[in-house]
Amino acid sequence: MSDASVQVTSPTPLVRPTPGLIRGLTGPLSVLTMLTAIAGVYWGLAGLWPRIAWPLVAFEIVTIVGCVFGLLVARGKFADGPGLTLLCVAGLIMTCGVLAWLGANKVHAGVNLKPFMLSRLGVAGILYALAAISEVWHSPAAAKTLTKAIAYAIVFVAIAGAFASFRNAPIMDKMQGWREAARLVGLAIAAILAVIGACGGVHLSIRAFTIAREPESAA
Question: How confident is the model over 83-132, as pLDDT tens digits?
C-alpha cells in the first residue's frame, strides 16, 4: 500500500472584474481631485511666498498619490480587490482634505479653504459608494456588515458635528461645582462614543470588503 499525499486546498476568493461604470466614474473623479491637489500645492508654495504652508503642501502631495491609485483602478488594475482599493483612496482623500484645511489654519493667502475641504469630503463619499457597488453588494452578508459600518460612522459624524457646532457655546466653557463635573462626564462619554463610532466604522467597512471576496460557501 503506497503512501498518498493528500493536499487540501482552500477555496480561492471570488474575483470579479471591475464594472465599467465604476471605472468610468473613478477616472474623472481622480483626475479632477488630482488637479485641485496640484493647485493646492502651488498655492501652498506661492500664496504667501516665502512663507510656505507646509502642511497644506504635504497633504496635497499625499492626495495626488492617492489619486494615482484611483486612476489605476479606473484602468482595470487591482481587479482582485477594486473595492478595498477605492475604500483606501477615499479614506486618504478625506483625511488629507481635512488635515490640509486644518494645517493651513482654514485660510491661506486670503482664500477660504473650506469649500475645497468640503469638495474632498464629497469625492470621498462618492468613491466610498462606488467601492460598495463594485464589490459589497454582490454579497448579502457583506452588505449587512457594511450597513453596520455606516451606522457606526453616522454616530461618529453626528458627535463630531455637534462638537464643531457647539465649540463656542456656553456649555463648552468651564462651570462651577456639580455642573462642571456633569459637563466633563458628558464630554467624556461623547468622546468615547465618537472613538467607538470611528473605529467600528473602519473595522466593519474593511470586514465587509473581506466578506465580499470570500467564496460563497464561506460567506
Answer: 888 888 999 999 999 999 988 888 888 888 899 899 999 999 999 888 88
Distance of CA 96 to the CA centre of its chain: 10
All residues at 6 or more sequence positions from 128 whose CB lies less than 8 Å from its CB, including other chains? 86, 87, 90
Amino acid, single-letter form, for residue 38 = I
Q: Is pTM, for the whole model, over 0.90?
A: no
Query: Which of 208, 98, 195, 116 has the alpha carbon at shortest distance from 152?
Result: 195
Across 50-71, b (16+ Cβ under 10 Å) vs e yields eeebebbbbbbbbbbebbebbb
Residue with cell 455642573: 179
pLDDT in tens, 195-205: 999 999 989 98
Nearest-10 crossing angle of helices 54-74, 82-103: 160
Question: Do you find a cis peptide bond into 50, omega within 30 degrees of 0?
Answer: yes
Q: Nearest to residue 71, comparing CAs of 96, 44, 34? A: 34
Containing 108, the helix (H) or strand (E) segment is strand 107-108
Cell of 162: 455637534
CA distance 141 to 203: 15
C-alpha cell at 130: 462606488
